[in-house]
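We emphasize that the prediction below concerns an isolated chain of 575 residues; any contacts that depend on oligomerization or on bound cofactors are therefore not represented. The input was used exactly as deposited, without trimming of termini.
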Amino acid sequence: MNKMDKNKLRSQEWFGKLDKMGFVHRSWLRNQGYPDDYFTGRPIIGICNTWSELTPCNGHLRDFAEIVKRGVLEAGGVPFEFPVMSLGETIMRPTTMLFRNLVSMDTEESIRANPLDGIVLLTGCDKTTPSTVMGACSVDLPTIVVPGGPMLNGHFRGETIGSGTFNWKIKDRQENENFSDEDLLEAEECSSRSSGHCNTMGTASTMSTMCEALGLTLSGASAIPAVDSRKKKMAQLSGRRIVEMVKENLKLSDILTRKAFENAIVVNAAVGGSTNLILHLLAIAGRIGIDLQLEDFDEIGSHIPLLVNLMPSGEYLMEDFYYAGGLPVVINELKNHLHSDTISVNGKSIVENCVNVRCNNRNVITTIKEPLKESAGIAVLRGNICQKGAVIKPSAATKELMQHKGRAVVFENMEDYHKRIDDPDLDIDASSVIVLKGVGPKGYPGMPEVGNVDLPTKLLKQGVKDMVRISDGRMSGTAYGTVVLHVSPESAIGGTLAFIQNGDIIELDVPARKLTLEVSEDELQKRKDKWKQPEPLTNRGYVKLYLDHVQQADEGADFDVLKGGSGSAVPRDLH
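Result of the prediction step, given as a token string:
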């Protein structure tokens, strides 16, 4: 890293010339009343805000932008806030994953096209974090992430409930516990009682944890609840720090090394993080130029013990995690499994940042000598169903189903599932394997979080709580169950999943990392010869662009044309 020369600030290419173009770039900003020194060599900091009233998890980020600006000004920088498309996981149809790559493009081009020296990413809901990080990586300026933080714990009639995880229990309660419409409405208010994102170790919490483990946030930032005053302090300090990062020329490529990605995989296993981490970390690695493969998640993370007792793998919620000491305690426990020669946004390694920490509740964060589970990382499966891989989260699965052989009950798409799953005459029992097709990147399109489909009503009434489920889609990080996800190649492009029929025998063997369809190659070829690829769902607009360029799950479902970066240089001016 080289110290900043203010005459070489990127923003000075816009503001540093006393000619026609310097006049143009400065004068229109003057209508906001900015003084001369905003244009004469102070670092210009872009605050990328994913705030939206349609993104509940990010609804407080408008206020946080002002707090970050305070810190930027205190450190001698000049803040400029700009919006990008926001992604509300619980609101947008058909799935926010369809738009992750679009937001990454919005972020990348907004950063590159403007006179910015450093970037603050304000994130929260699931895809707002990876999309903005992906976009920023393709420009590679000094960048810091300010995660919006989780909601406070939900409380419903004496029960602690997690926003997200409680969703997956509703059908069972309605069928078996006389859960009424009035109960449902009351639980809605109780489960989401403050600003912030899901308070389980779902995808949003996993993404903020990922950023801290990668070194992209200040130490301890990820777990602080959104409404805790200490979150505001962290935002202000982040505003100060980004100015210093510009002066130090500490860029994303300095932080996001191969070792940093390995640290993130280890930490994700220890906290019981979401399988969605795989897709997003692969995509981020592809943008910054790091060779990361699907197998790395198994080889590096699967032997790591589970240390954090949070829903959906455990009992507690993110508020409890923060009070117990948060991610710094976990990192300190993992210090012998982590690379200590990486660098984070404050110039120190994540291990160095977490030396003098204390755990306040060992029921929430265990020691590495006495973990909740001996190994808890994500398992990568191979077999004739998934030649390019599939994944399962053992910590959220049923132990008795980790080795299972059963008869396939096939649903060709989500409409077929909704139409037939609760048919009393459906030929299905607890030993069956639910197979859902057509929910991959191209098939849905967008790879929605439907892999953990609800079980049939008639089986729920029999007390069945879990079944093996297989799909080319994703699963919410708040969800649980013995669910095989991200099957690649997907069914919509002719992966073996497309040729599975009702009654076929499927064997799942997680310890052996195998997922096998017991059908001969000859029979599969006959089925393939008769198969017709589904017609594209559209021939125009962004979805057409998505269908033409999206890669498969084992490559992070990024666009092929977006891998790598174009840097920050923009040689041509607007006149």
